[in-house]
Amino acid sequence: MGSKNQIITPRQARQINALMLTCGMYDGAGEFAFRIGIPGKSGVGGGIIAVVPDAFTVAVWSPELDKSGNSLAGCAGLELLANKVGRSIF
């Protein structure tokens, strides 16, 4: 699993993570950062991809959306995961 081939630079990875954290969850980015504490990017189809830098990436999907257009169950699941593994960038 996983590739050891680097396709972006460490600087680009930091920039992408910063963009995901600050605006990847539409108007819900602040709440997502507060509750979950890891960079994420959602789509209006109900998918979310989230990154714990230097550790792992996780994808979730559930179609029911909140008022910001983010998956309700996906956000809840990511919050449970973040709490369970004790990982946050804050």
UniProtKB/TrEMBL annotation:
Signal sequence bounds: none
Gene name, Swiss-Prot/TrEMBL: glsA_1
Transmembrane segments annotated in the record for this chain: none
Alphabetized UniProt keyword annotations: Hydrolase
Catalytic activity reported: L-glutamine + H2O = L-glutamate + NH4(+)
Official protein name in the record: glutaminase
Similarity comment: Belongs to the glutaminase family.
E.C. no: 3.5.1.2
One MF term in the entry's GO annotations: glutaminase activity
Originating organism: Proteus mirabilis
Subunit structure: Homotetramer.
This protein's record includes keyword Membrane: no
Annotated SUPFAM superfamilies: beta-lactamase/transpeptidase-like (SSF56601)
Alphabetical list of Pfam families matching this protein: Glutaminase
